Amino acid sequence: MKEQQTYFIYTFGCQSNSADSEQLAAQLLQAGYSAASAPDEADLIILNTCCIRESAERKIYGKIGELKKLKIADPQRIIGVAGCLAQKDKEKLFAKAPHLDFVMGTFAVGHLLEHVNRVKENREHVLSVWEQADETQRLRPSNLSGQISAWIPIMYGCNNFCTYCIVPYVRGRERSRPVNEILQEIAALAEQGIKEVTLLGQNVNSYGKEGDVKASFADLLRKADTIKGIERIRYMTSHPRDMNQQVIDVVKNSRSICEHFHLPVQSGNDSILKAMNRGYRIQDYRALVNAIRQTMPESSLTTDLIVGFPGETDELFNQTLEFVREMRFDAAYTFLYSPRSGTPAATMPEQIPSAVKKSRLQQLMDIQNEISLQINKQSEGKVVEVLVEGPSKNDSSAFVGRTRTNKIVIWKYTGSEHIGELLPVRIDKAQTWVLKGTLVN
Ligand code: SAM
Ligand code: SF4
C-alpha cells in the first residue's frame, strides 16, 4: 500500500455543497490524506451531490456509473456519495450502483472518517443517512493555499417550503451558527490571506430568527465589515420576503460589503408566486428593488427565474417577460421547472409539457441576454476596481477578476498584477457575461 492515502472530491450543485466539500477535505487532510490531482490516482473518491433538478441527478448517476471502471481497476479504492442526492435516495444508490462503498447524507458531513473507517474494516456497504442534524464543531477549511475567496456557511437548512423545492427535505430546518464562531472564522481566514468571503445560507435574511443566536443578519454583516484584511464580503441567498431596509443600509454604509443584490424572484406573476408559496407579491418585490436602487444607484441586481411551473399559461409567462423587461436585471439564472417527488408542486394539475417549457426558457434567455449586454455596454470606457482572481481558464495570456458588482472582467496579463490585489481596469468591450478591458497603471 502507498504511504500516504489520497482523495478526490467531485462537487455538484450550489455553494453550500462547495462549503461542505471543504469540510470533507479538511477532515481528510487532518487525518493525513493528501489531494489527488485526478480521480484515477485517488484511493478515496467522494461525489458530493445535488438533487435540485432532475438534470442534476441524471448527470450524477452518469458519473457514478463511469466510476465503476475505477473500482474494477482497483477494488481497494473506496467510492462514496455524500450530499443532497445521498440524503434523498439513500439505499437506492447501492441498488443502482453496487460498486459504491458508502452513502452519507447531508447531516453526517462532520463524520466522514467514521464512514471511511467502517468501509475499511468491514468491506461492506455503509449507509449513513440521518433525519436529524448533528451540529458538530466545524473544522476551519485548511486547504486554502493560493485561494483568495472562501465560503462561510452562516446557517444551514431552510424553513420556507417553496412548493417546487426539495431543499427543506434534504437539508432540514433552519439552524444559525453563533455570531462569534462566524466572526472568528472570518478573522482566521483573513490571517491566512483570504480577501473575499461569501456568507452562505438558503435564506440569509432570516439569520438568527430561530434558536438562541440573538442577532439579525444586519448585525452580523455590520460586525463582519470591521474585520481587517477582508476586502469584500458577499452573501447568498437573499429571500425577497425577508430582505429589508436595515440590510440595505448596512451595505450602503459598509466598507467591504459588495453592492450586488441577488434576489430570486422566480416568477413575474402573483398567482404563480402564491402557488409557489414564495410569500411576496410582485409589488413587494418592485418596492424592494426601488429601495435598493434609490439607496445605491450603482448596485447590481441579479435573480433566479423558473419557467413552466404548473399552471403557467402563455399569458402568465408573458407577465414574467414583461417584469424582466421592467426590472432590467444585470443577469438572471433561468431554470426549467423540474418536478421533485415529494414536493407539493410535483402533483399539482396542469403540469407544462417539456417542449413548451424549453421554448419559454429560450424566449426568456434571449430577452435577458439582450438586457445584460445593454447594461454591460454602459461600463465601456469606465475604470472599474477588480479583485484579481488569476489566469483565465480559456486564455493563458489573460487574467480574470471581478468587480464589486460581481461582473467578470478579463484583461491581457501584464506581468505586474498578483492574485488577491485590487486593481483598476478600463473596460474596452462589454459582452453579455464578461467585460474585456485593459489594466490601468
Ligand atoms: N434558497 C435560494 C432561494 O430561495 O432562492 C436558492 C435555492 S436553489 C439552490 C437555487 C434556485 O434553483 C432557486 O432559486 C430556483 O430558482 C431553482 N430551483 C429550485 N427548485 C427547482 C425546481 N424544482 N425546478 C427548477 N428550478 C428550481
Ligand atoms: Fe428552496 Fe425556497 Fe428554501 Fe430557497 S427558500 S431553498 S427555493 S424552499
- Secondary structure: number of strands: 19
> Can you give the mean pLDDT?
94
In this structure, how is the largest beta sheet organized? 6 strands, parallel
Tell me the Rg in angstroms.
22 Å
List the helices and strands and how they pair.
Blueprint: E1 6-11, H1 15-30, E2 34-35, E3 44-49, H2 54-66, H3 68-73, E4 78-83, H4 84-89, H5 92-96, E5 102-104, H6 112-122, E6 126-128, E7 149-153, E8 155-156, H7 167-171, E9 175-176, H8 179-191, E10 196-200, H9 217-224, E11 232-236, H10 245-253, E12 260-262, H11 270-275, H12 282-295, E13 300-307, H13 314-327, E14 331-336, H14 354-377, E15 383-391, E16 398-402, E17 408-412, E18 422-430, E19 434-439
Parallel strand pairs: 1-2, 1-3, 3-4, 4-5, 5-6, 7-10, 10-11, 12-13, 13-14, 17-19
Antiparallel strand pairs: 8-9, 15-16, 15-18, 16-17, 18-19
